Amino acid sequence: MRLTRAIRVLCAVTLGGLAPLWLLAAIDSHAGDLKNEPASFRISLALDRGSIFTDVAGLSASAAYPYGSSTNPAADDFLRQPPNEFTLAGTLTGNYIAFTSGASITAGAASASYRLPETGTLTLGFTRADSHGAKSHEGDGFGLRSNELSLAYSHRLGERLSVGGEVKLSESTLNISGTLADLPLRADSDSLGIDGRVGVLLGLGEQWLVGLLAGAGSARGHTTGAWITPDPPFGFGPQRFRLSDEITSVTARLGLGWRPSEKFGAYADWQYLGLSGNTNSAEVGRMFGGLEYLPVAALALRLGGSLDTDRQATVSGGLGFYLFKNFQAEMAYGYNAFPEVRREFGRAHLLSASLVLVY
Length: 359
Known about the structure:
mainly beta
């Protein structure tokens, strides 16, 4: 049994506090690699990438992956036969994300799963993320604090069929200091968000798995701040402002898995993501691929990658250690983990580790 849902929850909130950063559209007129999209949308795209990270790379696996780290909320209850039987499971996870600009983000997550006697698995998760020394290439600084609470339920309908759903609540605070027309700009943003997903996982024969999920979410933020111009007659004095915005998202993902044996699995996913704000909208498609190989029962080797319609690519790898029935460990590394915000903060190197206790 491999249960690493806290890793996925952790990635979902790691950039979650950046979602209300529409103010960067005013601070930085560049749109980076997504030339026609404002910074707020690129950051939301990075957030979604974090929550659905590369297949079986240790962070968040394919929609067809039959374990708790899957992006598919139906996966938790799919496997119940030995060695995947359990009553209680707890996961502790730590993430460290280092950007080449010098900024970093640390995050910690905890989750607990309870499996009902006949069918059904409940999972509760909590995540906290904080930024450190965060400054963009343009010199704008920010401080992030973000929290997320999630509740998921998976229900097995048959030997090769399960369904599930998940609801996530998030809140974040972001402090920004930058310049506009070479004059100081200060702003504080608060955001509240809710996200829901439903999924189904189906086994076709003994070797093939098909996963399908759909979701929608909304994040509303409020920003207050001031643009410090010179006092009259040379300027207008401090110009205070208040902004509000809401970003809604719709996503659909199809996953296909091939598991010819317990030692090997290959996965491919296709995802559509649409974002809409008060004045802008964006759409992107992504393709994911991943491999998992267990040379021995106690060790898993993982490699994955992704490519989207904006030619953004990521590569990642991971290790799983299953030396004991009641104790498991996962490690992973991601290169260029959040390319959507590379313009502001450089390439992201992501390190993750988790411990799982099973009873």
